[in-house]
Every structure is written in structure tokens, then in C-alpha cells.
Amino acid sequence: DAKTTQPPSMDCAEGRAANLPCNHSTISGNEYVYWYRQIHSQGPQYIIHGLKNNETNEMASLIITEDRKSSTLILPHATLRDTAVYYCIVRTSDSWGKFQFGAGTQVVVTP
Amino acid sequence: ETGVTQTPRHLVMGMTNKKSLKCEQHLGHNAMYWYKQSAKKPLELMFVYSLEERVENNSVPSRFSPECPNSSHLFLHLHTLQPEDSALYLCASSQVRWLAEPNEQFFGPGTRLTVL
To answer: Which residues of A touch B33 (CB under 8 A)?
Structure first.
């Protein structure tokens, strides 16, 4: 599976949009981009995933560049409860469903 | 119960003890996973079970012994652990469909293990 690069940390003001970048320059054509988050000492929580097209759900939006070498997770109106470590992962469907987690981005939402 | 449950939530054990961690998924999934998360480190995949067969063992020491008696239950048997094995142990499940769009994994809350 392709390696991803994320900034180690970022701050966001409550109520503002949080834009979390992820670079995956070696991504293959059949690899999906997944985002998870982990609130302190809890299990990771699925947020969203995509292949080529931009995706949106009730939690976030995922913007994937046309060359698929990078993506951005957007939390449209950050709340204090969005403070967590956010993981960007790329993987294929033929890998027993396993995820390779990196260090992620520590997002701190401040009042 | 819904989702993925893990028991116990906290466990303190000595290096000579034998204990087991339990995971149960109520989602009808066909794959289950054990992860280890040490302090300030990324999650490390330990074991993967698909259709109750172990399909991956990521060089985990033999003092960790997994067991998957059926598709809903996964155990991690622990014996003669070391203090450096203290970590958050996470269980996850997913529905794996070969060569189809990969489904997300659902994680349990984890067991916080302390080895004295």
C-alpha cells in the first residue's frame, strides 16, 4: 500500500472549517483513500473514503486531486469534539482489508 | 450490544500471569483484526483473521496467542508478558470482499493493558 504524508499537528478555531492535507504521491490506480480519526485513548473511527471523485457525508468532505497524488479532508464546522488524531490511509481491496496507520495529524480545536 | 465490544477495558497483570482479551463483533463481518498501540506510536497491526483463519501474523512474539473460534469472536491470550507490552490493544472487524471496494473497519474501544 502507498505511503502517506501528513503534517504532525494543526490547530483550528471552533466553528471554522478544518482542512487536513495528505500527500500520497505513489498511490496506484486501484488504491482508495481512507480517513479515520482517533479521539484520545478510544478506537479509531471511520470518517470517509474515496477513489477518484470528491466525496461528502454527514461528517466531512474529501477532495482528491485530479492526479490523485494528494487529498484534503474538510471538516466544515469544527467543534471541540473534533479534537483528535486524523489518519489518512491508502489501500487496495486485495490486502485482507488491513489498514497501515501512520502517525496522523493531531488536530486541536480551540474555543 | 452493537458494533465491536472488547473486555476487559482495563487490565493490570504481572509478568508471570496468563490472561486473555476478548473481542466480539455484532456486525456480521467476516474478518477480524488485533492492533497494538503503544504510547505516542502509530497503531501496529498484529493479526488478521479472515473466515476464522489466521491470514496474517506481523512478526508478533509467541507470548501473544490469538484465537478465533467463530466469525464473531476473537481472543488474544497473553502469557509471560514484558513491561514494554503495556499498550492499548484494539480489535476491529470488517466485511472483506476480495477485489471489490474495500470496506471500512469498525474498531472496538480497546483494552488498556499494563504489565508490571
So the answer is: 97-98
Instruction: Give the DSSP H or E segment for B54.
Output: strand B53-57
Distance CA A57, CA B1 (A): 25
Residues A49 and A99 sit within 8 Å (Cβ to Cβ): no
Q: How far apart are CA A54 and CA A35, in angstroms?
A: 13
Cα(A37)–Cα(A107) distance, integer angstroms: 10
Q: How far is CA B8 from CA A31, A96, B107, in A?
A: 36, 27, 15
A63, three cell numbers? 477532495
Interface probe for B, chosen from A59, A99, A106 (most Cβ of B below 10 Å), is A99
Which pLDDT tens digits describe chain A residue by residue (111 residues)? 668 999 999 999 999 999 999 999 999 888 899 999 999 888 999 999 999 999 999 999 999 999 999 999 999 999 999 999 999 998 876 666 677 888 999 999 999
| pLDDT category of residue B54 using cuts at 50, 70 and 90 | confident
Q: At CA B99, angle to CA A66 and CA A104, rounded to 5?
A: 55
Contact B90 A101 (CB under 8 A): no
Interatomic CA distance for residues A59 and A36, integer angstroms? 11
Q: For A85, what's the count of Cα atoms within 13 Å in the CB-facing half-sphere? A: 17
Q: Are A72 and A22 in contact (CB under 8 A)?
A: yes
Q: Burial of B41 by CB count in 10 Å (0-12 exposed, 13-18 middle, 19+ buried)?
A: exposed
